[in-house]
Design brief:
Strand content: under 5%
Organism: Opuntia streptacantha
Number of helices: 11
InterPro entries: Cyt_P450, Cyt_P450_E_grp-I, Cyt_P450_sf
Protein name: Costunolide synthase
Pfam families: p450 (PF00067)
CATH superfamily of the largest domain: Cytochrome P450
GO molecular function: heme binding; iron ion binding; monooxygenase activity; oxidoreductase activity, acting on paired donors, with incorporation or reduction of molecular oxygen
Distance between the termini: 33 Å
Helix content: 55-70%
Number of strands: 0
Number of domains: 2
Structural class: mainly alpha
Largest sheet: none
Low-confidence stretches: none
Length: about 270
Amino acid sequence: LLHGASDIAFSNYGHEWRKMRKIFASEMLSNSNLDSAYNLRRQQVRKMVADTYEKAGGVVDIGELAFLTIMSSITSMVWGQTLKGHQGCAVKSEFRAVLREFMELLGAPNISDIFPLLARFDLQGIKRRAEKVSCQCDEILDSAINIHNSGEKSGQKDFLGHLLQLTKREDPATSLTLVQVKAMLMDIVVGGMDTTVTAVEWAMSLMLKHPKLVRKVQEELTEIVGLNTSVEEGHFPKLKYLEAVVKETFRLHPPIPLLVPHCPSKSTTVAGYT
């Protein structure tokens, strides 16, 4: 699923891991890159608000709404205007379906992890499903990359464009392979989507159980933002109570309670123990 552990989350600690982490932090998460994608995020949030308003008086699935919004926001930031029109919608729709199964497989308990001798039999079919999803992800990413390379790239400031530029560098210390680009794209999408959706669901659940919290958040929004103004990212530093609600949600229900497993790359002796 993760291109042979070529991504940041699961690759072995070493030169390549440090290089990818440095590139991701400096090239992808720089203020200029994030600012350039602000309008894309803004469009998706406004669309979510409009869709929710249309369902006033009905049932709103917060998890589904958050998933679609975050999925659209992340893919827009990753691909920018590379995928647009009917072709772009088709790719994004297919990617969304594949990602759902991808997330399910990542969290699925596998009996082969407990009894390695059973791995060859793939009793639950997880390996077969994972191989299928991996191929589908590769096809979608290859399609997006081909569209990007064959299209007009002037003025595009999406993450995919930045990563593809790194594959053309001659310096091994700052260049990436195409496999690493694909793995990093999956890190961006998967890492930023499931955790955020989970946090949104828990936050809304806790607030609905405590009406006083809802009123306080509404009062703060009215005071800081106003009744006739949309919430913008620039308002967040001033929304102290809302920030406290989010932090308390993370404390009570961390999206990832356990960190990605790590192990030493070589035997080490600490206090006489190996």
